[in-house]
Design a protein that fits this description.
alpha/beta, eight-stranded parallel β-barrel, six-stranded antiparallel barrel, 18 strands
């Protein structure tokens, strides 16, 4: 069995680097246009080039979404965009439109073409069709079961890759091809402008009986009848591998660095543990499941993977996320001290990292408020072991001490007891 790729979303360059630091084998991202996430920050061509260079130095991959349903007025712009991307040389394009697919073959022949889930890929004839046209990978429709994917694997060429979503938000419409946003707000989900009306509150009323509410499960605020739980398959790595899926994809190009780091680290540990020993994976299954709940979520479901979801896969009384853990910031630079002496970062050994006397002064752009004296958590690549740190001091850029940091996006310097490394993330949980 070949270990599957862990494919993470990246909404900006910082998150791309975070994804790789925390265990992703590849990321997918969108440029300024044509990528179905118009409200995301997205990447300029210069940022895409920097991200691709960063990934390739690590031996990892970057895929670019070009998966809008293109209209005539999009075509000239897409041609220009594909030519520019061909020079940057990412590892693949994710495409749903057949016309764009053919343009990519002509204008960027050095870049692999992957078929988006938006193309409704539900059988092995679809896969073989795209393979004969030059696609190297197809993203399975989310409506497929693992049994169906396994049958597809048995009926396609060995070098044809299957990519499947294994974590993240689920869409109300078939393979994400939704008209609800366009109908209600004039913003087309198939052009990247979804307003997520599936998360809004609704009442069911028969048109000849205004004010008479039908017996739909609801509370006093209405019902979220379209609001799905989030997909989570961390408990089912053996079944995913057995189905022959090559790339395990996490949804979330509009998520934070903390979300990406938490999910990437949890799945990295789960996948590696399974391939080291299925018994080791089973022994640590509860730990993996616990860690994944620390990212924002709408409760979890296994989606369609084990058959048609029941009514339990929907959430009827709320569209809120569970947000038990708060993102404090990503460490930009660190200085180390023992007593009054500063210790050069290059001289710190593994034993010194474990020294309880070491203090770390961390520079970061603060995301949420915390206070001097708080117990915060270090989120570092690798082990899922909980690493708590006490905040000893907070200073602003002028070097003035502060009791707390209430202003988002403020550059601060935080001294904690214990070792923290550059690029670690800081968070605080419900019991910290």
């Amino acid at each position: 069995m070949k270990k599957p790729e862990l494919l993470m979303p990246a909404g900006n360059l910082e998150i791309l680097k975070t994804a790789f630091n925390f265990g992703a084998d590849a990321v997918y991202l969108g440029g300024d246009m044509y990528g179905l996430r118009a409200k995301a920050h997205n990447f300029s061509n210069e940022e895409i080039a920097e991200g691709v260079e960063f990934a390739h130095k690590l031996g990892k991959k970057v895929y670019i979404t070009v998966n809008i349903t293109a209209h005539n007025y999009d075509i000239e712009g897409i041609k220009k965009y594909l030519k520019e991307l061909a020079v940057i040389a990412p590892d693949g394009f994710i495409i749903s439109d057949p016309g764009v697919f053919m343009l990519a073959a002509e204008l960027a022949p050095n870049v692999e073409r992957h078929i988006s889930t938006q193309a409704n890929n539900v059988n092995y004839l679809d896969y073989n069709f795209w393979y004969k046209l030059g696609a190297t990978r197809v993203v399975s429709a989310r409506e497929l079961s693992l049994a169906e994917i396994k049958e597809i694997r048995a009926n396609i060429p060995e070098d044809m890759e299957i990519e499947s979503f294994i974590h993240g938000a689920m869409c109300i419409s078939y393979s994400g091809r939704c008209l609800l946003s366009n109908y209600l707000t004039g913003r087309d989900a198939n052009l990247g402008e979804c307003t997520h009306p599936c998360r809004w509150r609704y009442h069911l009323v028969e048109e000849t009986r205004p004010g008479v509410y039908m017996p739909v499960e609801e509370n006093e605020r209405g019902t979220y009848i379209f609001n799905s739980r989030d997909l989570c398959m961390i408990d089912h790595i053996p079944e995913i591998v057995d189905a022959g899926i090559n790339s395990l994809k996490v949804e979330g190009r509009m998520k934070t660095a903390l979300y990406v780091a938490t999910v990437a680290r949890a799945y990295r540990n789960a996948i590696d543990s399974y391939f080291e020993s299925p018994e080791e994976y089973a022994k640590n299954a509860a730990l993996f499941a616990e860690e994944i709940t620390k990212c924002t979520n709408r409760q979890f479901t296994t989606g369609f993977y084990f058959g048609k979801p029941s009514s339990d896969a929907q959430i009827y009384d709320s569209n809120d996320y569970n947000k038990d853990y708060i993102y404090l910031g990503t460490v930009l630079k660190t200085r180390y001290f023992i007593g009054d002496n500063e210790i050069p970062a290059a001289s710190i050994s593994d034993d010194m990292m474990k020294n309880s006397d070491i203090r770390s002064e961390c520079e970061l752009i603060q995301k949420n408020k915390f206070c001097k004296g708080d117990l915060i958590e270090r989120l570092a690549p690798g082990s899922l072991e909980k690493q708590e740190r006490r905040v000893l001091m907070i200073k602003n850029e002028a070097g003035e001490e502060m009791e707390s940091c209430p202003h988002a996006s403020q550059r601060i310097f935080v001294t904690v007891q214990g070792y923290i490394a550059q690029n670690d993330l800081l968070r605080v949980g419900p019991n910290d």
